[in-house]
Write a structure and sequence with these properties.
single chain, 2 domains, 26% strand, 178 residues, alpha+beta
Amino acid sequence: MKKLAARTRSVIAMGLATSALALGLGIAAPGAAFAAPAPVSGSSSNPELPPNDMVEGIDYWHNMQWPNWRNIGNREWFEVAHWEENGNGQTHHEMVFTGGQFFDRDGALRNFMNNGPAPSSSHGYTGSFQEYNTTIYDRVEADDIPRRDARRIIRAIGTGDMFWTTDHYATFHYAGRS
């Protein structure tokens, strides 16, 4: 009985080791937990402009001189403007969100900067990134916190290289430097 238990443990260990090796080499079975980096389009000679409905938010962050997790904290709402509605006294607060440090977990942005068509001065980048929402939300009540949409700007803090996404990081578009 002891030999059977030892053999079973050995077979299980061998199976786990083989699975781990397959995942590491990228040859895992379909459905295994292995994600390819998100595609990045655009280049330093041909940057892709973000959609028009993202421009107001981008301009706001640019005018704020691109605050980041080092100087504002990690995740914050910022008031862009506030105004009172005529006749009923309701105050509107236009708000935009910074999502904090972006970790580039799949390496797509660093790979693009180091090996792709980003400016040569971006090659070798090891610094951090900041996430910014571009949608400006209208809040009437102080506790009316909007649900954020999928539109984001990701900016390399050290170089100013800027990427945008409209599908919450499934794809990225290189927009140049800001």
